[in-house]
Amino acid sequence: MLRRLCALLVLLVLISISRAAETGLKPDDSVAIVGDSITEQKLYSVYMEDYLLMCKPAADLKTCQFGWSGETSWGFVARMNNDVSWFHPTVGTTCYGMNDGGYGPMKPDTAKKYRDNQKAVVQQFKKMGVRLIVVGSPGCVDADTFRKSTEAAVMYNKTLAAERDIAKEVAEEEGAVFADVYDTMYDAMTKAKAKLGTTHAFAGGDGVHPGPNGQLAMAYAFLKGLGCDGNIGTITVDLGAGKAEASEGHKVLSYQDGAMEIESSRYPFCFYVDPRYPAGQSTRSAIEFLPFNEDLNRFKLVVKGAKADQLKVTWGNAEKTFSKDDLEKGINLAAEFIENPFSGPFMKAQEAIQAQQNLETPLHKTWIHNLQPIREQLPETREEADRIVAAAAKRRQKLADASSAAIVPVKHTIKIEAK
Which terminus has fewer CB within 10 Å in the chain: N or C? Predict the structure, then answer.
């Protein structure tokens, strides 16, 4: 009896391992970012591509966004083979639920339809050969701006929270990864409103479509789901020994008397005020309420062998004073110096990524999607349709190549001296 019980336990463990979600990006992965109008806003999807290309959690990653305004999970199921397969994704992230809930209280038939179609998306992705699938929950609606009614916001956030639980269950059942977009956004929103007031919009002025602040929270949740470890790099300086060294992605070009020139091919993530939105809704304003820098953006400076108790660190055009103890433990340059030598190059690369994603919307919504009924009703035109898809993909690839080309090594200087 004991033997049978042990055998059963071993079998259950093996089943659990076989069903466990694969985590982590691999070199050359192609990442499809899928969702509704919140994805089509091309904010969190741009931040994700910024991170994947510039912060380099794996080498040579490729990204394409497939946002569609007003879409539901069942709407995506109907179009995903035609609209997404040309990209040959190996990784996929999904964010559905805002429209699926019908903007009312959760009902049993709504929950079932959402569950069934979340499963269908995952299963179809598997058939397409997608290796890593991140099932995202919907985000939250704004506690104050949604329908200008706190009661309405409470009601619909309960529906979205129920969808969060369903998305998590589906991910576990299907061996996918779950990204908790809802809790990430809701927790950050609660902290932001506690400090900045109820008039501060975290999930957008309409309560549904977040600005850069809420969308950074979404990007954070998905990047965590993709298994990004947040290690951008470490610069280690030994003042006593008179030397400096850097981790992979960074090279010390010269060092003398606490001053060094470094060349970095791996960027820290940078934060901005987007002129299209109120300043309080910028990504820069959101980092106070998110552990983005702590979890995803660690570019450390470690200083050993200092004799003075206080040291001035100059990075580019900015300087700050730190204690000897803090520098021995290591400071996060990305968090301490919001404006830094990477800010300009990062924004230039982001502009190229934005141009790429701007093309991707008509690419899949118009050019490729509209070929589906033609293929079905006029099968003799399949070869012509395939040529159109290839031409559209080629046009997009030119912009994707420009995005990659915009990410060039950055030379920067760090100087350490006694205060």
Answer: N
